[in-house]
Design brief:
Mean pLDDT: 80
Order of helices and strands: HEEEEEHEEEH
CATH architecture of the largest domain: 2-Layer Sandwich
Region (Disordered): 77-97
Distance between the termini: 110 Å
Shape: elongated
Low-confidence stretches: 40-55
Number of domains: 2
Keywords: Membrane, Transmembrane, Transmembrane helix
Number of strands: 8
Domain SecDF P1 head subdomain: 96-196
CATH class of the largest domain: Alpha Beta
Transmembrane segments: 23-45
Structural class: alpha+beta
Radius of gyration: 33 Å
Strand order of the largest sheet: 1-3-2-7-6
Largest sheet: 5 strands, mixed, barrel
Oligomer: single chain
InterPro entries: SecDF_P1_head
Length: 200
């Protein structure tokens, strides 16, 4: 009786079976990579949608729609809640009732190349951002250099829109980059309205 071997006899003409392990592994890794990329893309797009976008920027329609003037004096509550209406050429009221006596117009809307409402960083409040042209940036740099050396309230910059001081920040250092940010605890609606008032 012939002795049986534990191994089957070789078969000729039949290709040897290859393991499918590497093919399955590569396929699974490819699917995982596609899923990761799809998730990352969705998160990026969602992040863009969740972030408030700036209102479309445009230039002021009239040169006198916005003015930058130095503050000569500030008298809190002197406007008695009146923030608009006829006033002397050198005085304007602020939204908080302060009456400002102002210097000459140092810079106006003719030097503003873009106005946009945007969410301030960091924080939830909105701001109005103004971009100045090259000449406007030079004038603004000279103005803020002068104001930064002044004593209160002569270190304040009045930003006048129409007949109202919408902001009068203290200038602590020259601003030469040609970017101006008007802040005032604005909501999105407030900032968009102010931007619209400036652009006319």
């Amino acid at each position: 009786m012939a002795q049986q071997t534990p191994y089957p006899p070789p078969q000729y003409g039949v290709p040897p079976k290859r393991s499918r392990g590497p093919v399955v592994l590569v396929t699974v890794l490819g699917l995982v990579l596609v899923a990761v990329l799809a998730t990352a893309t969705a998160l990026l797009l969602r992040g863009r949608d969740d972030k408030p976008t700036a209102a479309a920027g445009s230039k002021p329609a009239a040169a006198d729609s916005v003015q930058f003037r130095s503050v000569l004096s500030a008298d809190p509550q002197a406007c008695n809640g009146q923030s608009s209406g006829p006033q002397a050429e050198d005085t304007r009221c602020g939204g908080d009732g302060t009456r400002y006596t102002l210097g000459k117009v140092e810079l106006d809307g003719s030097r503003v190349s873009e106005v946009e409402a945007a969410q301030g960083q960091p924080g939830p409040d909105w701001v109005v951002q103004l971009t100045l042209d090259t000449e406007g940036a030079k004038l603004f740099g000279a103005l803020t250099t002068k104001l930064a050396a002044g004593e209160p309230p002569r270190n304040q910059l009045a930003i006048v829109v129409g007949d109202k001081v919408v902001s009068a920040p203290v200038v602590s250092a020259p601003i030469t980059a040609g970017k101006v940010q008007i802040a005032g605890n604005f909501t999105q609606q407030d900032a968009e309205k102010l931007a619209a008032d400036i652009t006319g």
